Amino acid sequence: MRILYQLLVVLFVMLQAAAGQRYIPGRFNSCAARNGICIPGICRRPFYWAGRCSNGLTCCKRGWRRG
Q: Where is the Beta-defensin-like domain positioned along the sequence (predicted)?
């Protein structure tokens, strides 16, 4: 009977840890967060360079740079 209580404690701790997670961790696409697209090569009009994508492609954003 004592092992049953120990199993319940372990199950309770596991459920508490799972309830604290807000989302399932995954790959974050920072280019999409900047409203850009990932393309191979250089950005052509009407796109401009906005950074690098996680897979090594170029992140391009539509529109013109300001400033």
A: 30-61
**Cα–Cα distance measured from residue 50 to residue 15, given in angstroms and rounded to the nearest whole number:** 41
Rounded distance between C-alpha atoms, residue 49 and residue 65, angstroms:
9
Could you read off the pLDDT of 20-50 as tens digits, one per residue?
A: 555 555 566 778 888 889 999 999 888 999 9
Whole-model pTM?
0.51
Yes or no: say if 51 and 59 are a contact pair by the CB < 8 Å rule.
yes
| Count of C-beta atoms within a 10 Å radius of residue 64 | 9
Residue in 20, 21, 52 with CA at minimum distance from that of residue 34: 52
